[in-house]
Design brief:
DNA polymerase, domain 1, 2 domains
Length: 231
Amino acid sequence: MLVIDSREKEGSKLVGLVEADAKYLGITTEKKWIEVGDYVFEDMCFEAKSTIDFLGSVMSKRIWNQIDNMDRHFNLNFVIIYGSLDDAIETVIDNSNSKMPRESRRILLKNKFLGGISRIALDTDTKPMWVESEKEASMLITAFCKIKPINREAIRPELIKRVTTDDLRLDVLCSIKGVSYKKAKALIEKFGSIQEIGLHPVNEITTIDGIGEKTASRILEVLYSERKVKI
C-alpha cells in the first residue's frame, strides 16, 4: 500500500501522476495524514519537493529536520526533487528584497541548491534524486514501490575496498556502513575510544552531526553483536 499524505494539495499534478502510475503498476494507494514524508510505502519514505521548495527548505534549514525525522522512522529514505533550477532561482530573485546584484544572487542560490543535495548525499543516509519533471518524479516513486517487495540479493561489488587511515580506530569505524571518515573522527573526539562509544545509547551517538538513529544502531550492533554482521 502506497500511502499519500492527505495534506498534499488537492489537484496536485504530482499526486495525480503518482496515483495514475501506481494504478498502472498494480500498486494500491491510500490518502491519509502522515506526520513524516509525503509518500510512504512499507519501510520507505519519500519527501517530494519542487526545485523552488527544495531551495527554500535548504535556505531555511528546514530540510535537515525533515531528513532527521525520516531517518528516525524509516529504513529507506529519499528526497525527490523535480523541476528547473533556473526557473526556481529566477522566482526566488523576483520575490526577494535583496540588493545583491542579480548575477551574484544567481550564483549564490545555485551553490545553495547544489550544496544542499551534496550534503544530503554525503552526510546522511537519505538518498537525494533530482529529475526534470513531476512525471519523472512519479515514475521514480512508483518504480521503487514496485521493486521493493521482490525478495532479492542486494547488488554489490565483488571486492570491497578497504578503508585505511593512520589510525586503526578510524579504520574500524569507517568500515561500518554510513560512517564516513569525518563521522568516525567526530565519534572518537567526542567519546574518546571505540569502547567508550559502545557504552553510550543511540540518542547520545546521534548527537554527532550526520549520524541518525539507523546508523547509530548499526554502530552498536557491530560493536556488540555475537553474530555475523553483514557489510
